[in-house]
Amino acid sequence: MEYARHSPGRGFRPWHSLLYYGQRIVVMPWMRDRVVQLLQRYVRLRTGKSPSTASGPCSAHLSRLRIEGYTPLGQLLTATQLHDIRAFLRDKPLTTKQAPGQRFVRASVPPDVRMADYAIADVVDCPHILALANSPELANLAAAYIGCKPTLSALGLRWSFPGQAACDELQTFHRDVDDWRFFKVFVYLTDVDVGAGPHVYVSHTHITPASMRLELLSDGDVSRQFADRKVHTITGESGFGFAVDTYGIHKGMPPTDTPRLMLTIQYSLLPNYLYKYRPLRRPELVGFDRYSNRLFLQN
């Protein structure tokens, strides 16, 4: 996804920068909760929706997500759906944030690349992605956790590769500060064991105070500061998904043996003003909630 400009210059939107940095400087959980309550009321008035409740399996996932910050969701994609996704992506170009002008396909990845992303238009057009993001199971979980109708605020398909290059910041323990309340659903699109770069999450840290500055933490820092917290190293077969409140401390382990392809879906209260959104006109994609999908699909 394309990053928005947060300093004066062409494309700078002061209001968006204020909204983005405003929520970053409020670090105490109880203060963030107060603002969340006000924003929930605003969204409910705007959408005409009452607070959502969870039932059945969604209730168990919601409870664990609220308490631990992490919950496994099981197999979210079938073998046929995974085949369709990989076939669609086979000839689609990849880019890196280090060299955004450089383009290559999966079959010819430069040796110094550690992480690479597909363009957002290809993510939207990829079969089964938006259908999964809007599935009743995930939409209901998102509405219940966010406390109102959620905004689909990020979509991504990213490869992580073994190699000798330095690790990316995302491969070091950190927090995401994307909105007042948000969470991500990650889906492995390749088999992920310890050698394929699994996601790692420190439980219960989504309800601990953060620092105003985004900090990178070493494994030793995490061991010292959060010795009483369970650290989840999340492995799974292709198609396995899990939900994580990434305000909590997490990282993606660098792959050592095999590459990893992962889908990211983010639900939040507001747009993530870190990004510049360009909704796409896709008349063939009908039936999805207009409000929740407004950042990616033109009404």
UniProtKB/TrEMBL annotation:
Q: Could you tell me which species this protein originates from?
A: Noviherbaspirillum humi
Identification of the protein by name = Phytanoyl-CoA dioxygenase (PhyH)
